[in-house]
Amino acid sequence: xxxHLMSTYARLPVTxxxxxxxxxxxxxxxxxxxxxxGIGVCGLGHAHPAVAEALSKQASTLIHTSNLxxxxxxxxxxxxxxxxxxxxKAFFCNSGAEAIETSIKLARLYGHNKGIDRPSVxxxxxxxxxxxxxxxxxxxxxxxxxxxxxxxxxFIRAPYNDIEALKAVAKNSPDxxxxxxxxxxxEGGINIPDADYLSxxxxxxxxxxxxxxxxxxxxxxxxxxxxxxxxxxxxxADVVAVAKxxxxxxxxxxxxxxxxxxxxxxxxxxxxxxxxxxxxxSAALAVLNTLDNEQLIKKSQxxxxxxxxxxxxxxxxxxxxxxxRGQGLMIGIELKQPCxxxxxxxLDEGLLISIQANNVxxxxxxxxxxxxxxxxxVTKLAKIIQAFALSHTETQQSLAG
Length: 401
What we know:
This protein is an alpha/beta fold. The chain has helices spanning about 35-40, 50-60, 70-85, 95-115, 135-140, 140-145, 165-170, 195-210, 280-295, 295-315, 340-350, 370-400, and strands at about 15-20, 25, 30-35, 90-95, 120-125, 155-160, 175-180, 210-215, 240, 255, 320-325, 330-335, 350, 355, 360-365. It folds into 2 domains: about 15-35 and about 310-400, Aspartate Aminotransferase, domain 1 (Alpha-Beta Complex), CATH 3.90.1150; about 50-295, 3-Layer(aba) Sandwich (Aspartate Aminotransferase, domain 2), CATH 3.40.640.10. A 7-stranded mixed beta sheet has the order 4-10-9-8-7-5-6, with helices on both faces. A 4-stranded mixed beta sheet has the order 1-2-3-13.
């Protein structure tokens, strides 16, 4: 490790040198099954030939010009994304946090255009929207916010998956102009709301004249078995933020909008130096084309159901497992106790996962994962969880004795 890196990550003791598909190899030759996809980024796995070819071809001709000029690949990407999401216009940036920042700015300008002096955005508890000052202020996690006060004002908080709480906000918040919500809370522990939650929010936003803004950073681009998670419920938002899986590792984000939201920004009201440059857009186009050509959206839904069912079958009798839930290839295993030590235990067994909310194992495997790899993932993880549970029981008995 370098002494010159800021200590913003508690890095695991491993250095990866190369990858192929769902696999990674470290600098000692050890092989790992990547069930995290770079935190939901590498939906096509590692070193996908279509992405590599697109990057190589674009890098050899033109990487960057700036948004002062027309960028054909950016225009093509905007057209494709808008068609997939039923949106009208796109703004490109470099990350999920920037896409959410764009959404927040758009909501505020939308409110000012309606004559509201201090427009507010409704956000939910236990959410995660990013680490910039505005996005961490919108986030419903005190740990992320601690030490960065004063926070950005203009956010109203409500419980997640509670439409009645949102209706109460509507009665008491005349300055509210938008709701920002995750279709499934990822960092919060793979929290899946009731089936009518998003459609109820859509109805409420229509009644109040609010923008419905979806954070599809983690759930979008096929992760849940649809291009966008809201499509499971036939819900169309006014603003959709995407990133993560869009570039398969190349930094790119987008804020998609329709209706009045699509025409709120004008020249000079927002911008990005690097956003939507030829290199990033070429990678994103390769990702979207590959998802279509290989029918990976449908496969992610089927493979996710397969993994979920297998986990439930193998862990059904485990006293330490509280709940197993998921949609598509976005799966959470909630344990009855903190389990952050599983990160190292899984790493030692050649498996990459993450732990959310201190006790939820999060799985975000690549969308290309096949049956054999999926079965191996389930077998490895179930064995590790069972060993962890046994160790915990023996420790408790030892302390009691």
